Amino acid sequence: MTASRTTLRRSLAAAAALPLLIAALGACGYGSEAKKDDPGKAAPVAKGEKIGGLDEVKIGYFANVTHATALAGLQEGLFQKELAGTKIKTQVFNAGPSEIEALNAGAIDIGWIGPSPSINGFTKSKGQNLRIIGGSASGGVSLVVNDKKIKSLDDLKGKRIATPQLGNTQDVALLNYLSEKGHKVDANTGKGDVTVVRQDNKEIPNSFKSGAIDGAWVPEPTAARLVDAGGKVLLDEKKLWKDDKFVITNIIVSQKFLKEHPDAVEAILRGSVNTNTWIKANPDKAKASINARLKQDSGKELPANILEQAFKNVDVIDDPLASTLRDEAQHAVKAGLLKDPLLDGIYDLRPLNKVLKAAGKPEVSDAGLGVK
C-alpha cells in the first residue's frame, strides 16, 4: 500500500465531492455536536510554574476507545503533570469536522483526531491551519457482518454495508477495498455492486439488529458492539496494511499555537508518550481509567465485554505512521473523493522526536511530508 509522493501534488477538491466530504469527515464520528466536560467533575489540579506563562491549553478529543491516549492521559493527570501550573481545558467532539472548525477558530489548540479530517483540514486551508505532531493509535477498525447473509468476503456483492460518514476514514477504506476486489460503487451515492450506507456510529448497531444493513466497516467500540449483537468479524483492517499497522488517530495542533507556545506543545507530547507507556504497562488500570473518562464525557461506561474487545483491538503508539496517512489520502483520490491533495508540510515531528530522544526512544519518520 505505497503511494508515490509525486501523485499527491495538487490540492484540488473534487468539484462535487469535497464540499460534502469536508462537511462529513470524521475519524470515527458520533454526530456533529461538541460538548464541554462536566464542570462539576474533579480534575487534576494545575500546580507550579506556568509553561511559558501560558494560562491554559485547550484540548479536543473524541469519547472513543481509539482516543485512548487522550482519555487515559487526562483521567490520570499525566498531561497536567507535564503542564505544571498551566491549566487544561477540554472539549469532547463527536465528529472530525467540528473539531477542525474549533481548531481553526481557536476554540482548541491541540486535538486528537483521525487521518481523513486531518488531511481535509490541511488541504482546505492550503496548508495553513494545522500540523500533525504525533501519533496516538493504530488499528481498531473491522468489517463486522451478519454471517447468515455473508459467509465470506466473496459474498459482499448485493449486500448493504454501513460506514460512519461519507468520506470518513472508514468510508474511504471500504470504498478502496471494494474497488480492489472489482466492485463498482458510486462514491457519492454509495450505490453500486455493494450498497454503502452512511450512518452515524451510534445508529449502526440498531440497524444491524433490525436487518437494515448486512454489515459495517467501523471503528471501536462500534465494531465490538456489533459483535456483541451477534455479528462476526469478517476482516480486521490491519490485515490489509504492512506490519498490521495504520494510523487511526493523530495529534494535531494549530500552527499559531505551535509557533507561539512550543514548550506547551512539548509538554503535551511528553504527556502523550508517558501515557502510552503507562497504558501498555498497566492494561487493566488503563481500561478502568478509559471507562471512567468515558462515563464523565458521555454519561455512561462501556460494558466490560465491549471495552475488553475494543481495547485489545487498538494499539496506542507514538509514531504517526506517516506513510499510511499518505496512502489513505491516495485511497480517497482513487475513490473520487479527493483530487491529488498537497500534503507537503502536514507533519512537524521535531518536537515529538525531541521528546522521544530525551526518553531514550527511537525517533519517528514523517515519510517526506514534514516541514522543511
Structure explained in plain terms:
- This protein is an alpha/beta fold.
- The chain has helices at 18-24, 68-75, 78-83, 96-105, 115-124, 169-180, 204-210, 222-228, 255-260, 262-281, 283-298, 304-313, 322-335, 350-358, and strands at residues 34-36, 56-62, 87-93, 110-113, 130-139, 141-145, 160-163, 195-198, 215-219, 232-236, 247-254, 314-316.
- The strands form two sheets. The protein has a seven-stranded mixed sheet with strand order 1-3-2-4-11-5-12, sandwiched between helices.
- The model is unreliable at 1-41 (pLDDT under 50).
Keywords for this entry:
single chain; 372 residues; 38% helix; five-stranded mixed beta sheet; alpha/beta
List the helices and strands and how they pair.
Blueprint: H1 18-24, E1 34-36, E2 56-62, H2 68-75, H3 78-83, E3 87-93, H4 96-105, E4 110-113, H5 115-124, E5 130-139, E6 141-145, E7 160-163, H6 169-180, E8 195-198, H7 204-210, E9 215-219, H8 222-228, E10 232-236, E11 247-254, H9 255-260, H10 262-281, H11 283-298, H12 304-313, E12 314-316, H13 322-335, H14 350-358
Parallel strand pairs: 2-3, 2-4, 7-8, 7-9
Antiparallel strand pairs: 1-3, 4-11, 5-11, 5-12, 6-9, 6-10
